[in-house]
Amino acid sequence: MKLFLDCEFTQLNQDTKLISLALVSEAGDEFYVELTDTYKVEDCSDFVIQHVLPQLSLPRYGMSLVDAQAALSAFLDSIEEQIEVCSDAPDWDWDFFCQLANADHKWPSHVANRPTNLIHLFRHFEVGDIGDTALPELPHHALLDARLLAELYERLTATSKSVGD
């Protein structure tokens, strides 16, 4: 089972901190969390302050890091199949996923221990496979972005014979 991962974080540097994380499965199941105790507004770039923070709904999705780890564990445990995590930015998103998934230093046994880079995967499609598939500009909201990545993957695999499961 592929899970499409997207994260929002404070800025593009080595001191970045997680703001939100989303997973959308091939079956349409979703996990989304906004962290309440991992960053301060002062940690955020101007771009994040202008484009990411206004989209948050902390009363609905906000959780502490510890609660988010427990919620992610429960979500992953609800999936019986082997899990492949896919991201369009694994160099950034994967570490944040690991931060939540590796709670108590226990890696979920049915989750692959490295991500699939969607950019590399999409390169395997023939140009004709993309056809009328418009590559959307992501809205910088982890859940919406993960949904778009899952939808794009589904549309491309539905029209292509060049990439299998």
Q: What would you say this structure looks like, in words?
A:
The model is unreliable at 127-131 (pLDDT under 50). The chain starts with a strand and ends in a 6-residue tail after the last helix. It is built from 7 helices and 6 strands; from the N terminus they run βββααβαβαβααα. β2 and β3 form a beta hairpin. Helices cover 38% and strands 18% of the residues. The protein has a single domain, classed as Ribonuclease H-like superfamily/Ribonuclease H (Nucleotidyltransferase, domain 5), CATH 3.30.420.
The count of β-strands is 6
Q: Count of DSSP helices?
A: 7
Strand content: 15-25%
What is the oligomeric state here? single chain
- Top CATH class: Alpha Beta
Fraction of helical residues = 25-40%
Structural class: alpha/beta
Average pLDDT score: 89
CATH superfamily: Ribonuclease H-like superfamily/Ribonuclease H
How many strands, which pairing sense, and closed or not: the largest β-sheet?
A: 6 strands, mixed
| CATH fold name | Nucleotidyltransferase, domain 5
Shape field: globular
Unreliable runs: 127-131
Order of helices and strands: EEEHHEHEHEHHH
For the CA atoms, what is the radius of gyration? 16 Å
Q: Give me the CATH architecture, please.
A: 2-Layer Sandwich
The number of distinct structural domains comes to: 1
